[in-house]
Structures are given as structure tokens and as C-alpha cells.
UniProtKB/TrEMBL annotation, chains A, B, C, D:
The keyword Oxidoreductase applies. It comes from Mycolicibacter arupensis. It comes from the Bacteria. This is 6-phosphogluconate dehydrogenase. Residues 165-284 form the 3-hydroxyisobutyrate dehydrogenase-like NAD-binding domain. Pfam families: NAD_binding_11 (PF14833), NAD_binding_2 (PF03446). Belongs to the HIBADH-related family. GO terms for biological process: organic acid catabolic process. GO terms for molecular function: NAD binding; NADP binding; oxidoreductase activity.
Length: 293, 293, 293, 293
């Protein structure tokens, strides 16, 4: 397929490379052009504007947040203005449910299709084409762009005909990860205050009931108090929890754990910790137990 | 070694069989004698009283709760009264930190040793000698009883010289499992209200970020609303969360997640659900979102 | 002064009458004109458009929510477009901090002044000129419009030179009232389940520690389960708690009680109770205790 | 009546004086005898043991906590052992529901009566015979001891025939006061971070919606950060919230506000603040908002 790929960050670059590897024609755009040039070395066609990246069948976006996606999609000479009728916007960014609904509607008015396809996986998985793709949209459109998902991921999960449902699933995944962090923060504080070594404790947990990457990764970071540099910043953690709560409010769903997490992140940010790794909310359980944060 | 084994429930019976298999001499006691007779067929010496089971080096207990352990240990003709000086009580039950402290002190006064060695694993793991043993106590005593741990488990974690620390680690494990249940309950309600199939959602989670038995087991139960018969009853879940909160209060550790879980279990019990599986607290998130529990 | 009064609801009508009584020239506008005609009987000049009500020194608004205030202020032929340079917009509605900031900035660009002056008090107090006015804005502007506050209220509290601070104080008042409701809901459920009569219990509370109108009003409604018709609807309660939480998030202030209240209101709305009085969240404490809501 | 009064603290002394003033014969006991001697100057008969104070119709206790009441009532030569058959124990201390149940049962076995009559009011109210008495017990017994209540209080509320119900009402009152403190802590932090003066804010609140002593007292303490010396220590606040939660758990009543308060008090105690006034939990809202506690 002919794919215009917009957003060559840590995740997007690996995804675009894998599209090339799978034989797709990729026109690439990035706000900072150095990354575009690097990708051109690997066979991509460089685009100097968003509009230039919207000349094919598909425009795929992998950007930081709602603001970036709004600008690239709805701005002058953006995707909606530039993609041919019948074209498809594949949105892989972690964005709000509300924005996904809005983009779906705007693209439809322009005679274009919109699908949400956020991914689970870290940059290494993106580079290795091992992402998990959570896709939602009209079945015929998803079928048409399936080769893209095959190129970037190890498996695709189709969750709904409504694109925004995929964004909600993605947000719920980050919500679940944040609860893992909070629960580890509380449990590790409890046993530490009874004299149990936190590193040994995490070893027990991850050897027994919780043999899962999330517990290993975050248990290790918390035990070592290793919150810098951030793998995923607390400010972004707050943003994703907020988006989950907003989506939940639109659906009239109370999320008491989400409320607790939101308060934790706000407390961390008020303490100046917004740039720390989001697992640093675990330090608040320690501080509240008199262990000094 | 010569081990008096007290408590032949689903867990204890498998543990006692494995002690026999490993070549230990086992004298077995159970409140209901039928299980003792069955074990005698496999080589155990039957005991008709607790005192008869306390004639060897070690008495190991695997009982339901604080009340049962108190009665067997401190009652007339109980373990303290019957075990020879120098003998060791290996307590594998999930009991309170406070009771563990008390038993440690009472046994010391009687010239006996006390170690806590609760286990992680379900009855199948107990039968297969695949338990994980969390042990705490004086190093020399733990060394002496290590053959018992080797016989029943696949790995032993020594966490402290203070026996009660092992009980706290065990309670913290159940606290973490309960948070998994609550977080799944909230996340699954959220995506279900957006039209995502809960079974498919659990498949996504456990194929990606949460490839761990706890998420598979409880995700499946919640998606199928399969809360009867209980694998672990909600009333017991409340008990363990309460014990964790009490231990935390003694250590002056706030556990906001623990507070939230306690309120959920109380709500479920007030609704008559005490005999349901503890994963039924997830139905409260559904009910509060207007999905009918 | 010459005041254009916009919004003749239960509160606004009483306020406008008192402006007339105090000798001010009032030009009145309301979306539904019948109320304008009624007020004209009492001496007001009727306005058929917002613009007609913006010909004097001051435009005062008393409207339902952010949406209404935005439309009247920023819409075509709205206050900003119609009020002469040097004129002042006195905003008495309960609106968000964010909107107050925005209106302040837009009016400044148009060479106009903006002050926030929300009020505490029910319709009877508005009719009796017994409101409490919480005012914020530039001191010289507040001095200039002080006669308006004197006409409608029994006392004016100036809280800041920044208009939005007054809106925050107003929102915080509703937050505090909602915590009174929630705390009464929990306490009354507790004693009721022990056999104490709720009406007698409220009598004890309000005769002793809590001799305040809020406890009498809401304690009585809860004891009698009298949630219809709503004095203040639960959907509006959720809105105000949400606005308080949003303002708090902008200031990086966690409000755990606010989070709890938000979850309660969402639960009530999910159960179809949005049109009930906001004190109906107390019925959730009863329901969660197995008393049937 | 002939009343043995046990416990001459700040509250008890005033109550005993008023019994004398009303013409009752009072035999007084206190752990520290100096207070007994002082009261003897006002007409009381001094007792050197609890037993000596139990020779009349009624023994009334006003002690610090469960431990003190247990010792005085159930200890050797305590009230149960010393009060004549047919005598009545009037318990005015703030004790647990569980202890009230137990004392009721033990006295009944001894052929004695037990009524709970905790009071609302501070030491000044006790001295002025202006207490509010919350009484529960068998109607005939309450009638018989009514002259005592008339002597110490301005009004008596009978809430149940079960004595422990009165203790629950008393605990619920402290729970409600603690929620007032927490809500003020959050609201005052919010407006302070927006630049509103806390003292002025409390003035607004208590002049308008919250014209009640609890808001004036605690609002003032919080605004001035005046937490020492404690009027009521945080450690006692935690105790009363814990007793309320325990009583609620026995009744299967979730109290989410109670859970939040318990976590706040634990956090304060972990920070070394157990001896501060219980209103110091408000400083945690400030700290969590980055204002430095």
C-alpha cells in the first residue's frame, strides 16, 4: 500500500521502518525533518508538509497527544484537507475518546474513512514488528488496511466498529498499569516497614503470583527508587488517567481506582515530580507511612 | 524428620502426602478423622488428638484462620502444652501478624521454636509439591526445618528473622490479588459500556501487558460472571484485607487501596454475597455504572 | 446606576427587582420574554435582545451554566460586542474558573471590565435582598459597582483582584455542601442499621454539634427520603463538583473528598437519578449497606 | 439519688459538681486522689477505691477509653463485683460499641442494669450543666436515672432500648466532626492556592452557609495552623474513627469517608503528629498540594 506516515518518534520510526520492510511505499513526515531524512536513507519518500504525506491511500499518525493529532489532522493543509476522498486515516496515537469521535465524524463529512489502531508495546517492540494492534472501525476499512497492521505488529485485535472503542481500550491498559504501580507502592511500603527487603519482596511476587512484565518492570523501579530518567513521565500518566476518567464520565461509569490514581499523580506533580517516571507515585505511599518518600 | 501435621484440608493433605513421599515420618491429625484414615493408607501414623501429633521434632499447622490456629496451639492439650522443649511449630496457615507475634512469644516461653511458613499456590500446586514457601524465623531453626520446605515446595523465600514478617508477606499477596480483581472490574465495566466484548477484552489484556495467571483467572471469572462455587469466598477475602489493614495500622501505614477494597467487600457482604467468589466484588463496579451488577 | 440584567430565573428575578427597588435603572433581558414583561410591570425597561440590555454602564448576568454565559457573552450581538468601552460585566452565575479567566481576558481586549460576583443564598434570600455576594475583580471596578451588591445582598465579601477567585469560592461552597450530604448519608445509614430512628438522629445532630441550616435541610431530606422535586438536581451537583475538580487540577490540588463525591454522583446518574435532588447521593450509602437505597 | 461517680477529668468533674448542686448524694472516685479531695470540699463523699464508690443506687463512669472502663468495671473489686444487685451502671464515656454490648451482658448476669449515656459538649458545657445526653437502655431504668441526666445536661435524647446504640451515636458525631475538618482542609487549600486569604474564607463560610460552631472552631484552627496544644489529640481522633469503622463493619456498613479519614490520621501519626490537635489532618491536604503542610 501507499502509506503516508506522520510522526517519527521512538515508536513511529520503528513502525515506519517495518512498513518499508514489508514492501509498502512510505512517504514520511515529521515536525523535525532530521528524522525524515534518516528514514529516507531506508527507502522512504520524504515529505516536507503534512499535505505531501497525504497523497496515498492511507495516512497513519503516531503522535504525542490530542493537541498534536488535532493540529496535524484538522489544521490548514492537514490530513482532512489533503487526503483524497476515499482515503483512510489510521490513528495509532494514544488520544482521547472524544477526539476519536470527532475525527471520525469530520473524516466522514470529507468522504474519508477513519480507524483507530493504538498499539501496546514499547519502542523495542515497535522496532521488532512485535506490537499488539488494537483496531476499531468499519470492517471493510479494517480489512483494507490489515496489511499495515500485519507489518507493524505480531497480532491485531479488532474490538468494535466504532473507532473510539480502540482508544478506550488503550487508555484502560494504562489505567491498569497505573493500578499495578499503586498497589506495589502500598504493598512494598507495608512489608518494608516490617523489615522485609523490597528487592527480595519483588523477587517473591514475580516468581509466584505475578510473573508478568508489568510487575517485574515496575517492582524493580520502585524497589530501586529509580525514577529518572522517566520511561513514561508522571505528567503523561496523569494525562492518560484523566482521559480515562473523562471517557468514563461520558459513559457514566465511576472508577474509584481511577480517582485515587488521579489524586496520587496530582500530589506527585504538586511536589515537582511531573518529569519523574510515573512509577514514582509509589514513593507517596512510602512518604505517607513516614518512610521519607 | 518426624513431623506432626495438623490440618488435612485441600492444601494440607497434599503437603502431608509430599512429606511422606520425601521420606519424612508423618503423624497426622485432622478435626474430621476420615481424612486422617485416608492419609494413613499412604503411610502416615494417625493421631486422634493434637497432643498425639506433637511427639516429634516438628508440628506443622495448615488451618483455616486465626481461631482454628489459636485453639489447636493454645488450647488445653494443644501444641504448646504437648510439643517437647526444643520442638518447633511450623505455621503455614494464613493468619494475622498479631497472632504470629503472640505464638512466637508463647512458644519461646515454653522453650519451643516458632517459624511462619505460609505458602503461595493452589491445591493443585500443593499436590504437586510446587508450592512457594515464604519462611521467616531464626536462621538456625529455618535451616533445621528446610527439608520440610523442600518436600512441599519448589522454592523457599526467607524474608526475615521475625516470623510474623512472613505472614505479612502472605497477606500482602492477597491484597495485591484483590487489587487486580478491583482494577479488572472497573476496566471491564468501562469498555463493556462502550460496546467491547469482555471476553475479547480479557484476551487482549492477557495476550499483551498482563500475561499472568492472576489476570487470566480473575479476568475469565469476571467476564463470565462465574462467581459460584467460590474458589475463595468473599467473606475470606474481607478477612484477609482486614488483617492486612490491621497489620498496616500497627505499623502506621495507610493503605488507601486496602480501604477501597474493604469497602467493596463490605458492600458485597451487605448484599448477601459473602459466599460468592471474592472476584464478585467486580460486579459492584458494573452495578455502580448502571449495568445491573 | 444603569444596569442591563440578563437572566430572570428564580434567582435573577429577585435580584433585578431589588435593583429596581434601590432606585437603579434596569433594562432586563430573558430568553423567554414573559418574565421580561412581568418585570416591566415593576418598572424595568424590557429588552428584546442581549444587545439592547447592554446600553448602560453595567451588564449583570445570572444564568444557568457555562454554556449559557458563553453564548450570551461571546455570541454575535453578545455582551462583548454590545457593551460600550469602559462598561462592566458583572457575572453572578456559578461558572467555571476557566470560563471566568477567559471572559476576563476577552473583555479586557474589548476595553471593558469584568468582575465575578456569585452569590450564596436561595431564591427566598434573593427576593429579600439577603444574598451574600462573593466579589472579585479590580478594586476600582468593584467600588464602582458596589451599589449593585448593596441592592441585592446583605453583605459583600471581596476575595481577590482576580475575578475567577470568586468563582472558585462559590464552587468550593457547593463542594462543602456536598460533603455534608455524603457524611450525613453515611452516618445516618450507620445508626439506622443499629436501630436508631433517622429523624430523631437528625434532631440530635442539629440540636447539638451541627446547629446549621445545611445540616437541618439535608438531614431532613435524607431522613424522609424526600428527593423529589429537586431543590438542586444531582446532575447540577455533579457539574459543580466537576468544575471544582477541574479548577483544582489546574492549581495542582488533589481533593480526595471531591473524587469520592464525583464517583457518588456518577453512580446516582448511572442509576437514573440525575433529576433527583443532589441529597439523593445519601441513598447510595444506604444501598451499599444492604438497606435498599 | 445516691450516685458513685468514677472519673473526675475535665468533663467528669463538672458533671459531678452538678450532681451535687442538684441535691444528689455523690461518692466520688478518681485514680489520682487529689481531684477527689477537691470535690469533697464541695460536698462529695470521697472514695479511695472503686468498690467504695459502688455502695449506692448508681455508679456513673466518665473515663478516657475502653481500657480504663474495662479495668474499672470488670477488674477485681470493680463495678460488677461491687455494685449491689439491682444497681445501675451509667456509662458516659466514649467507648466502643463492642464493649458496651459486653458490659450490658456482664451486668445483666450480675443482676445489675447498664445504660449508656455519652454526652455532647466540651468541658465548659459540662461545668455549666449544659451537656446534651444521648441515652439508651431499658425504658424503666432510663426513667429511674433521669434525674441524673437532668442534673448534668440541658436535654436528653433517648435513642434506643439497646445501650450500645447511644455509643454508636456518639462515635458517629465524632466521625461527622472529622469530615468537617477534612472538607475544610481540602477547600481551604484549594482557595488558598488561588490566592484567597484562609481567614477571610472561613469568615465567608461561617457567615453564610456554615454558621455552626464546628466550622468556626475548626476553620479558625486550620486557618491559623494552630494545632498545639491539642483540644482533642489526633491519636484519639484515629481511635474514634477506628471504633466507628469497627462498629460499621459489625453492622456490615461501608463508610468510604471513614476510610479516607482513617488513612489521613494514619498519615499524620506516621509523620509524628499524634499529639497534635486532630484538626491537623487538614495540613495533609496542604502538603499534598505542594504548600508545605
Amino acid at each position: 500500500m501507499h502509506v503516508g506516515f506522520i510522526g517519527l518518534g521512538n515508536m513511529g520510526n520503528g513502525m515506519a521502518v517495518n512498513l518499508l520492510t514489508a514492501g509498502h511505499a512510505v512517504t514520511a513526515y515529521n515536525r523535525s525533518p532530521a528524522k525524515v531524512d534518516a528514514l529516507a536513507q531506508q527507502g522512504a519518500t520524504p515529505a516536507r508538509t503534512v499535505a505531501e504525506a497525504c497523497q496515498g491511500d492511507v495516512a497513519q499518525t503516531m503522535l504525542a497527544d490530542d493537541g498534536a493529532v488535532e493540529q496535524v489532522t484538522l489544521g490548514p493543509d492537514g490530513i482532512v484537507a489533503s487526503l483524497p476522498p476515499g482515503g483512510t486515516h489510521v490513528s495509532s496515537s494514544t488520544i482521547s475518546v472524544a477526539l476519536a469521535r470527532r475525527l471520525c465524524s469530520v473524516h466522514a463529512e470529507a468522504g474519508q474513512s477513519f480507524v483507530s489502531a493504538p498499539v501496546f508495546g514499547r519502542p523495542e517492540a515497535a522496532a521488532a514488528a512485535k506490537l499488539f494492534v488494537v483496531a476499531a472501525g468499519p470492517p471493510a476499512v479494517l480489512d483494507a488496511v490489515a496489511p499495515i497492521f500485519d507489518a507493524i505488529g505480531q497480532r491485531t485485535f479488532v474490538v468494535s466498529e466504532q473507532p473510539h472503542a480502540a482508544n478506550l481500550v488503550k487508555l484502560s491498559g494504562n489505567f491498569l498499569l497505573a493500578t499495578v504501580i499503586e498497589s506495589l507502592g502500598e504493598a512494598m511500603t507495608l512489608v518494608e516497614k516490617a523489615g522485609v527487603d523490597p528487592v527480595a519482596y519483588v523477587d517473591i511476587l514475580t516468581s509466584t503470583l505475578f510473573d508478568a512484565p508489568a510487575y517485574k518492570t515496575y517492582g524493580g523501579l520502585i524497589a530501586r527508587k529509580s525514577f529518572e530518567p522517566a520511561g513514561f513521565a508522571a505528567a503523561l500518566g496523569l494525562k492518560d488517567v484523566r482521559l480515562a476518567l473523562q471517557a468514563a464520565e461520558e459513559l457514566t461509569v465511576p472508577l474509584p481506582l481511577g480517582s485515587l490514581l488521579r489524586d496520587r499523580f496530582l500530589t506527585l506533580l504538586a511536589d515537582g515530580g511531573g518529569q519523574l517516571d510515573w512509577s514514582a507515585i509509589a514513593s507517596l505511599a512510602r512518604r505517607d507511612a513516614g518512610l521519607g518518600g
